[in-house]
Amino acid sequence: MPVIRQIAQMGHPVLRQISVSIPDPTDSAIRVLNEDLLATIRYSHGVGIAAPQVFESLRMVIIASRPNPRYPHAPEMDPTTLINPELLWTSEEVESGWEGCLSIPGMRGLIPRHLSVGACFQTLAGEKREVEFTGFPARVFQHEFDHLNGLLFIDRLESLHNLLTEQEFVRRTE
Ligand code: ZN
Fold first, then answer.
1. How remote is the CA of residue 36 from the centroid of ligand 1, in Å?
2. What's the DSSP call for residue 124?
3. Cβ atoms 82, 63 nearer than 8 A
4. What residues have a C-beta under 5 A from ligand 1, the ion?
5. How far apart are CA 54 and CA 156, in angstroms?
6. At 116, is the pLDDT very low, low, confident or very high (cuts 50, 70, 90)?
7. What is the pLDDT of residues 148-165, one digit of tens each?
8. Is the separation of the CB atoms in 64 and 76 below 8 Å?
9. Does domain 13-173 have CATH number 3.90.45.10?
10. What is the C-alpha separation between 109 and 54, in angstroms, rounded?
11. What 3-state DSSP class applies to 49?
């Protein structure tokens, strides 16, 4: 049975570490971690998660955009697990959008991100893949990829005026 993991909260040092590569994506411990991460996303109404957020300083993220109470307009996609992801290219076009983070509950920030990105990664079967994300999933990817390098969305705020409480965010967007 997958375990819903505790989420590391902003201020915990694990969120500021550079995560380490996973030597063998087919390791059973990685499969278990993947199942736990999926269960944790679903439980927390997340649209993505990075392994360091559950105190595992490993280069692994899941992008799982779907409409939920936290992101009612998120597009639906099959959850994708990316092991040892690398950013291949970014579009010149940048778009600002609202982001939250399971590690920073109750807050939203208006964050500029590249509209499209290309990445390569390994699957749970250890196969090499390339993927292109555009729009909201591209935003989620850039957010989760940042987690692997010890960055949080607040680091990318252009102004603290773009940081809102969840309550104010809901009031503005209703
Ligand atoms: Zn986050």
1. 16
2. T
3. yes
4. 101
5. 22
6. very high
7. 999 999 999 999 999 999
8. no
9. yes
10. 22
11. strand
Average pLDDT, the chain: 96
For the question of residue 127 being annotated catalytic, the response is: no
**Domain residue extents for the chain:** 13-173
Contacts of 25 (CB under 8 A, 6+ apart): 83, 84, 122, 123, 124, 125, 126
User: What is the arithmetic mean of pLDDT over 129-153?
Assistant: 97
CA of 154 to the centre of ligand 1 (A): 10
Q: How far is the CA of 49 from the centre of ligand 1 (A)?
A: 7
Condensed to tens digits (0 to 9), the pLDDT of residues 48-77 reads 999 999 999 999 999 998 888 888 888 898
H helix runs in the chain, sequence order: 28-44, 136-148, 166-173
Rounded to whole angstroms, the Cα distance separating 54 from 49 reads: 9
pLDDT of residue 65: 87
- Residue whose token pair is 């040092």: 13
Task: Give the global pTM.
Answer: 0.96
Q: Is the pLDDT of residue 166 over 90?
A: yes
CA 146 to ligand 1 centroid distance, Å: 8
Of 76, 127, 130, 144, catalytic: 144
For β-strands 80-90 and 107-114, DSSP reports them as unpaired
